[in-house]
Queue: 3 jobs
Job 1
Amino acid sequence: MRWNWLLALALLGSLMITAPNAHAVEEPRWTLAFRDGPFEVRDYARTVVAETSVAGDRGAAINQGFRRLARYIFGGNEPAREIAMTAPVAQQPAGQRITMTAPVAQTPADAGWVVTFYMPPGSTLQNMPRPLDDAVLLREQPPRRVAVIRFSGLATQNNLSRHVEELRRRIESRGDVALGPVVYAFYDPPWTLPWARRNEVMIELSVPR
């Protein structure tokens, strides 16, 4: 299982190192609404995502989900077309309203996890190839506002939880209203040195009308 996980992440890593640098991989389009140090509020554009639901704990779920989605973008589709990888990969709990985009992202729930790949900017449901695996679903995420804390280091549960607490404090201090579950987002291959890694925790916000 561990070896399969490393091989799956190597697919992402190989794409990243063929670019001028690891962060040359495209991300979903967003504009900055607010920034204070590592805390940001972003407005994301409409985005097409491929996602899959996986049971189990966080590590096992992102392992299985990543491999399933990687097969889809590397030709496991009709008509066997390769799709450019974007960053991050995202994960959030299943059984809750799904709203987030960006990274490899992740969130916990009794029903399992939803693991998400973001399709290249400009993608539409009409021009995406059909997944051969029925467990891979394509969906269009509407425009949304998202609060984000960016941090480096290893994605241990303690590190993630500490930054989730900080993110919730920042949201509360601004008087914003959180809508969705927390999403964990990971941008780098596993061999990236801890201090060079980009991790994010994210929560969708209600937009005042």
Note: Confidence is low (pLDDT under 50) at residues 1-7, 13-23, 96-103.
Job 2
Amino acid sequence: MHTVMVILGGLVLLALCLFAARLIGGAGPGPMLTALKVFLPLWLIGAAINLWVGVARAGYSVAEELPIFLVVFAGPAVVALLLWWKLSRG
């Protein structure tokens, strides 16, 4: 359940980045692409913090947490990359 909540948190962060881009930059693909470029490193940091918490506080080994890290990062990152691809084409 925790993994699902973290992934949903990543999707919320993605939506907030896109919303901020729309407010600050206006309509069009340019600001949205910038928001996606900002989101990816932010989400990498967020997923890494989740990995650290799993290792340092929950007592899992890095080997146990690494697959979870990959799933947690990949979910929202794939959505962001698909949006990036779609916005770049149009």
Note: The mean pLDDT is 96.
Job 3
Amino acid sequence: MSESHETMAGMSIAVAGATGVVGRHVVEVAEARGHKVVPLARATGVDLTTGAGLAERLDGVQVVVDVTSNPSQKREEAEAFFGGVTTALLEAERAVGVGHHVALSIVGIDDVPSGYYAGKRRQEQLLADGDQPWSVLRATQFHEFAEQVLHFVRLGPFSVVPRMLSQPVAAREVAEALVDLAEAGPSGRVPDLAGPERLPMHDLARRVNRAQGLGRRVVAVPVPGRAGRGMRDGSLCASSEGPRGRTTFDAWLAQRQGA
């Protein structure tokens, strides 16, 4: 355990999206470092979209880590979700004196037109325009995304996967970076976090398919328009110097199969 972890142990950290792909790792990492974790979910009496129950749940919390997600690719729905959740969290944080808001965002959202990414841009803008101290970490796609794309478009035995260049990173390492930020204090937008390799998504999907014996036939299809070009030209990969994950895709897949 580093000195910073030792000196910051014992914080109360609320996690919005605590049961998601990254959220569950955030909970485990924070608890392993000696922090108290307060999950924010409907099961705990909280409605993140309206703010109902948030102020009571955040009483005594020092940092909120927001790793919420929404399945909609429609711009209107994505902006409404991320804008609504962020607004509700910030209002509740101000009401009870939470001193730091940490949000997870996505590498490339400024360069690839997507309804979902518009929602993430809305989230970031609300933080930048507000008066609540904040930190934002943008990360590339998680290793788990290669498994998810196998189920996006299924036609009989075929899985249609978009042609895209990815730089996948382990969700665990993203969680570690988010807890680091929670401990460090408000830092604004920090350098992007990406994985150690640039790889085609359809190749990753095929590796998952073989490893899990799913029997799918992966068909790589280019997404039309500017969004598709951005997906193929590396706009969703890190474009500047910054931290890089340690876990390769194959190492993650081997760990997953072993588990």
Note: The chain has one domain: 3-253.
